[in-house]
Specification:
CATH architecture of the domain at 37-139: 2-Layer Sandwich
CATH topology of the domain at 37-139: Ribosomal Protein S5, domain 2
Structural class: alpha+beta
Radius of gyration: 21 Å
Pathway: Protein modification; protein ubiquitination
Number of helices: 8
Protein name: Anaphase-promoting complex subunit 2
GO molecular function: ubiquitin protein ligase binding
Shape: globular
Keywords: Cell cycle, Cell division, Mitosis
Distance between the termini: 40 Å
CATH superfamily of the domain at 37-139: Cullin, Chain C, Domain 2
Pfam families: ANAPC2, Cullin_AB
Helix content: 40-55%
Amino acid sequence: EEQKLPEQERPPFSLVAIILSSEFWPPLKEEKLELPGQIKEAMEAYAKKYEKLKAMRTLNWKHHLGLVNLEVELADRTLSLSVSPVHAAVILHFQGKSTWTLEELSEALKVPAASLRRKMTLWLQQGVLQEEPPGTFTVIEEELKDQAEKVVLIDSDEEGDSAMASQADQKEEELQLFWTYIQAMLTNLESLSLERIHSMLKIFVMTGPMVTEIDIQELQVFLQKKVRDQQLSYSGGVYRLPKSCN
């Protein structure tokens, strides 16, 4: 429908909604995230169109859930990334202002500073932002040649064997939180591949400001442990709940 509109009336980006019914999905954790104005306007326009098509129904947006495809254009490079809404909201704020303090961003996004700092790591690792002085973030328009070396030195100084063990324990706890959602997926859809489970978790669960992302290898280890514990079965490349759990 948007393609039929005159170019000047089209939204600046495409928006696709996935409708979740409370009857078939466990309660989703509510997390505060204040989106930039242009994003909220597009979502409000989408909701109005939905209400016209579906009488007596409306949309209750979960701002912290979903996936955003971004192209970040800098002076000497363009990055194409798929990120969570909070990551996208962070970098969009740097369009109009090249330097932000952690406190300013925390206030603008309504995200706790401690959680927001963890999310800033993505943009630091991508070489899009730099933190200098501590607590102040600035856009890097031209890529720093020694950026990778600096990241390695910081990581090696800050993390020892005990820290790595502690992180592993924390990751296991986070994965356990996802178990409710994995069970709901398999109850509704019966069988899913590792890749499908990971993509659904990435969209619906792992995108909030308070949640740390996991990669597909970590998820596979977790699911295989559930298989060994007889809480899942695995055959033909897909996972299922044991019949006694359905």
